[in-house]
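Fold sample X.
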Amino acid sequence: MTDVALRPWSEGDLDLLVRNNAPELMEHLGGPESDEKLVARHARYLRGWRDGSSQMYAIVTPEHPEGIGAIGFWPHDDDGDRRMFEVGWTVQAAHQGRGVARAALESLIEAAHAVDASRPIAAYPRLDNDASNALCRRAGFVLEGVEEFEYPAGTWLQSNVWVLPPAAPATA
């Protein structure tokens, strides 16, 4: 596997977001988004870094500094009783099956723990997204159940609820 790194989302990453919007990559996310939604998503990713509401990253390698995917985390409340981070990712088709997503997720978990190690981390892959479900399992997430989850294209789909327990206890 090539060295995988995370680079904070930048102004120049709109093209990466467009490439990540390919039908084969959006199959498990309700389908590709419109150009307008991509521009809004790009702005939201940039805003997240400025206001601290999220941390989105380009997944890069030495051979592909322009990015081969995206990954990030943002605050999420689990029906009001747990403050968590939610994570999401995509890796372009030509780079799948090479450990890229696993390496990126490991780095992202470290970044999330640096922000707040007392928060559990949740992922919501569709039931039929075998690769993402396997990634969650291998990364130590615990399957807590199934729920309807809204995906980027505004589609509600049955998803597994995977939760990685906090790395440190909550402080009062």
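Fold sample Y, listed below.
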Amino acid sequence: MTQIALFHSVYGLRPAVLAAADRLRAAGHQVVTPDLYGVPAAGTVDEGFALLDKVGRDTALGRARAAVADLPPDAVLAGFSFGCAVAADLLAERPSAAALLLLHGIAGGPEAVRPGLPVQLHLADPDEFEPQEDVDAWQRAMTEAGADLTVFRYPGPGHLYTDPDLPDHAAAAAELTWERVLAFLDGR
């Protein structure tokens, strides 16, 4: 059993995040899914960015810190898109994290990575929010810092392709992502 903190995208705590947590729980993991906004999720990405601006990044990060305060130091940090940045920010404060799981976003820099840290990234290819040159530079930096990095790209789907309630959804890519995520989490 792995303890996991799973952070939502800029949209807020959507049903897809809760369903992902349920899927992880069904595989035997314990998962927390903090609501970093404290208000209903947005319906569009623009509304999501407006919510983040209203709540404030510092407040959202404070809520994330509070959500992981009682988790063991080796809990896996995971996130969807914006939630990847939250997970990466917390990695600097939780150096014993068992792994970093990034869904739909690159985040964090090599300064928080310890040698051998398991990191798994799942991205659409192409991804409108993650240009290839940025992904390549991030991948080089993480690898040079010693991360045990695996990157999966999924041709064709949109940015948040695992969310069945968004136009980005790609069922086959989402299913393959979850198979790979569960394998990654086994034994952590």
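Sample Y note: The radius of gyration is 15 Å.
Also: The beta strands are 3-7, 30-32, 76-80, 100-103, 118-125, 148-155.
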